[in-house]
Amino acid sequence: MTKAQPSTFRLETIFAGMHSSYWMTMCTFSGFMAVYLSHYGFHDALIGLTASAISLITIVFQLFISSFSDANTKVPLKRILVIIYLLMLGLVTVLTLVPMPIMLMLIAYALTGGLGNSLPGLYNAQIIQFVNAGIPINLGWPRGVSALVYAIFAYLLGLLLESYSATILMPICLVCIVVAVVMVLVMPRPEQLKDSYAIEFLAEPLPKTSLIELLKASRVMQFFLLSAVFMSAGSANNLLFLPRVIASKGGTEAALGLAMFLQAGVEMPAMFLTPFLVRRFRARAVLAFSLTAYFTKSVLIAVSGSITGIYAAMVLSIFCFGLYGITSVYFVNDIVKHNEKVRAQALVTASGALSAIISNSAAGWVVQVYGIDRLNVICVFLQAIALVLMYYCAYLHAQDEKKKQPPMGRLPLPL
Q1: 194 contact partners, CB below 8 Å, separation of at least 6
Q2: Neighbouring C-beta atoms of residue 161, cutoff 10 Å
Q3: Fewest CB atoms less than 10 Å from the CB: which of 208, 354, 357, 388?
Q4: What is the mean predicted confidence (pLDDT) over 342-354?
Q5: Do 337 and 349 contact (CB within 8 A), yes or no?
Q6: pLDDT for 389-408, tens place per residue?
């Protein structure tokens, strides 16, 4: 007998709480990375090196844990998520209480950041399990709420940093991690909501494929990930080095908090609308439009002569990650096999991390030697390359769809 389904609204509310508590954690931990590390004596090049180390750890851990999850489907994703959070809790406690030399602090900070950055791919894979199980859960408004929470939290942290030192960040992060663990624990597993036949693909013994085989099988996936690499590299000036962009226009920590509020807060309406847009238009079309917005945003940052122009660029985020984040989840989920979905979502995160390994170190060196304006120009070129690659990816996806359609006048299968 089929188990009664709980309200999808309850599931969506838990999902919103999971994402909100995660982004509160990461806002506190890495949203003000440059401010926090500078407080302990890190210069720009070393900050970039730390961010690159985080990205390297993210890739290694993300690919390991996603491959483990795909190969061991009986191990719930929520258990893996809780273990990662507990490891983060221990590391953040060390950063809070134990004085360390710079290099040891770099290692502890990079390990924590790498663990934290590996979580979104697992979150996406977990929620896609519900979608694939036939549970009509809406991905839009929960992600939108988390964006608003991040925005408000970033603004409040910016105000706090005006009055207190950066040492307050890690104690606040500890509280956020505890909340995040609680939210993960209350999320039910898909198999608890449906009988096993309703989600056969979770138990069906499909042939296992390696990461290399997964990539070789789809040129669409290859070019999508390549586009993501350049897009991530081109975002260095509005993520890691946003504090330097704000300072170059005469802004303070409060102005940084407001910029982060605008950048994240405007994403909410787009996230609410994304499920409708994906149904109304092709996911590839939404992604191509989003990459166009990323390019436009980078141009606006490069040519802005005042803090007002930077604020205007932040508002364009409504069409950037606001559309890109959820749409990429749908897009990747549709182009891979059932037994590849966790690793495919992990590859999206890993592609950004791969980009950051080189780009963050290089960006830190560029800022230290040539200044933030030179980095802004480089980001424009990187976003232009990402845009071209995404349009070509969309073209390949359209061609693949045409090949799968049966010729007119013929049955799709022989009688």
Answers
A1: 2, 3, 5, 133, 134, 135
A2: 21
A3: 208
A4: 70
A5: no
A6: 999 988 888 887 777 665 55
